[in-house]
Design brief:
Blueprint (H helix, E strand, L loop, with lengths): L5 E6 L3 H15 L13 E6 L22 E7 L1 H14 L1 E9 L4 E8 L1
Antiparallel strand pairs: 1-2, 1-3, 3-5, 4-5
Helix pairs in contact: 1-2
Amino acid sequence: MSGTQLTVTLSGGGADDARAVVRALENTFGAPDEFPADENATVHTATFDGDAPSGGAGDGGQDAGSLSAPVTVTVQGSPEAVRRASDTLARVFTARDEGAASGDQEQERQLLLEP
């Protein structure tokens, strides 16, 4: 994983909730590989491969929308990417830190986002 690559796994809520979380991270990490789309899926995943587009403030998605149900989010990447994602999500949503695990070069953090 590069220093800016981030993998986000979301469960709980629906596809609209997953898209709101992904939109919240766009200003910080740029566009994801794809937006969650399957309305019947119980787990959604998105991967971000870079930094925010030029001119982006990098401060989170103010127009991300709201959540209809609690969403559990796991962010995985470099410690810096995980910190940035966690900070962004905590600014945009009501977030509770559910724990973290660290490896040699990667970190994983789980957050519970509430409506």
